[in-house]
Each structure stands twice: as C-alpha cells, then as structure tokens.
C-alpha cells in the first residue's frame, strides 16, 4: 500500500518512468530521508574515469608488440598521433550532436545517413566490443638490453609489415560508442571537450609508459600479449611475486572495463536486431537472452582465436577504424547541421584517406603473411 496522497504517487511514478529512458544515466536518482531527488549531473572526475576506463582495455597489452614492430621512437610518436586524431574525431561527433540535440552515436549516424548509416554503426560497435570481450577473456586466462629505436627495413615486404601495427593502435583508442552516454550525464555540456582531452592525455601517458617499459624489459622477446611475458623469470628479486602483482592488477582492471563495454555491446546489438521494439530495459526476457548469448559467443571465440594480436589486427582495420575515424568524418562531410568549417572538411577528408590507405595496406600485409605461412607449412 502506498503512503501519502495520490498526486505524490503519480509524481513519483512519473519520475521513475522518466529515469528509465535510454538517454538518461544508469543511476539517475537517489533516495534520501527527506524524499526523492533527481540526479544533478556527473562530476568532471567521474566522467574522466568512465571514459578512461572505456579506452584502456585489453588493447594496452598489445601495444608493446606494436612498439617492437615500429621501433621505440616511431611507435611512441604513433601513440600520440592516434590520440590527437581520436580527439579530433570525437570533437566532430560532439559538436554535431550538441547542435542537433542528439543523444547517441547511432542517432547521429541515422540523422546524417538514414537507417543504413545507423545499422552500419551499430554493426561495427557490436563487432568491436565482441573483439574487446574476447581479448579480455584471453588476458585473464595468461637483463634490460638497448631497445630498438627504429624499425628494421630490409625489403618492401618489411615496409608493408609496419602497417600491421596501425589497427592495434586504432583499437586502443576506440571509445566513441560511450562518449554520448557520458555526455548525457553532464549538466554542463561545455565540460565534454575538456573531459575528452583530459582522458586522452591520461590514457596516452599510460600507453606510453606501459609500452616503453615493457619493451625496455622484454626487448625482441616481447610477445603479442605482453601479459604472457610475465609468466617467465624476470631476472629480478621476487620475480614471481612481481608477476603475480602485475597479472592480478590487470585482471582487476579488466573486471571494471568489461561491464562498461558490454553495456554498449548489448544496447547496440538490441538496436540492430530489434530497432522498432521497446527499449531493452523494459523487456527482461530479451535482456536475459541477449546477455547470455553474447557471453557464450565471447567465451567460445576466446577459446578458438589464437591471440589478441590476431583479433585486434582484423577488427582494428575494419570496424574500429569505421567507428573511430571514417564515420565521424563522414558526418562532418555531410554536415547535417551546417556547422562544419573548411578546416573541418579538410581534416575529415585527410582522416578518411589515412584510415583507408593505412588499414588497406595492413589487411593486405596480413593476408600475404597468412599465405606465406601456409606455403611454409
């Protein structure tokens, strides 16, 4: 039985209905002694933490192998360069979204390119996040020499091989599918750009430090998943203890990452399969079926895919580059709200050309390596 007059019950019921809308925060209200209070916006530090957690996932474990391939100096410069491109692409999305009062990436693609634009974005997000989930599952289950400053280039094939590091770097910064969720929680929308910059600066620092010291420690013995290197004797006192600390710390981190990326995966897959149905939060049966099915797919794929490098190679060169660079650039070129400057459009074209050329070469190089391995076998 309810307590209080009827109008109070109606108001509280209305509030509860409103907060379950897909554009509002997951925890939008709090109940205190004096009554029912609405959520008053996320903090700057909280938003930075959420975005940073989205960015720094299993991809960080493959970055040292990218540094091994590119060389120390070009590899670290590429980490910074991809971070700057990521900041530019997110800025494109946020500016267009604020102008059109858009609250999701899929909605923005739908406004710019219709139903097929939205479907392409949702399919890409599903593909990328499944790959991230596979990598996380695989990570949970596994004397310092002068590092190589520049890559070794012997022939043309070694040049093509360098491009295979690009998809891994691209995947490491993909967070675009969660930017709108974080932006929706902010009361002051002008904070979005500083939050993105702070988060990218923080994550880039973590990436540079991890890649540099891991490559310095393991050198040419750096594995595709650097966490696997911490199964061996490091040649230092208490090596086994240090190995355990590193692995447990990273396992704790990916336990925080997985729910965040899985939320985006489930939401986008539901929108892709059931675009006209009511929101998934209102349908417990659909919610349960999609959640269990995705977990089964992720765990099964993690068993059969040989390494996280292979997963990031293909995903980074296809779905990740679409989400991170090509789709935002396409939105700016279509310019549905008339806000793009000449500089924006030049940057958008440059971004598309770089993404298509570098990742096409990476796919070509990967395919050639597969054929060579088959010939040798």
TrEMBL record:
Residues 1-23 are annotated as: Disordered. This is Amino acid transporter transmembrane domain-containing protein. The chain crosses the membrane at residues 73-94, 119-140, 160-179, 200-218, 248-267, 287-305, 311-333, 345-364. Its main location: membrane. One of its GO terms (cellular component) is organelle membrane. It comes from Triticum turgidum subsp. durum (Durum wheat). One of its GO terms (molecular function) is L-amino acid transmembrane transporter activity. PANTHER family: AMINO ACID TRANSPORTER, SODIUM-COUPLED NEUTRAL AMINO ACID TRANSPORTER 11-RELATED. It is a multi-pass membrane protein. It is found in: Membrane. Residues 42-152, 156-334 form the Amino acid transporter transmembrane domain. Belongs to the amino acid/polyamine transporter 2 family.
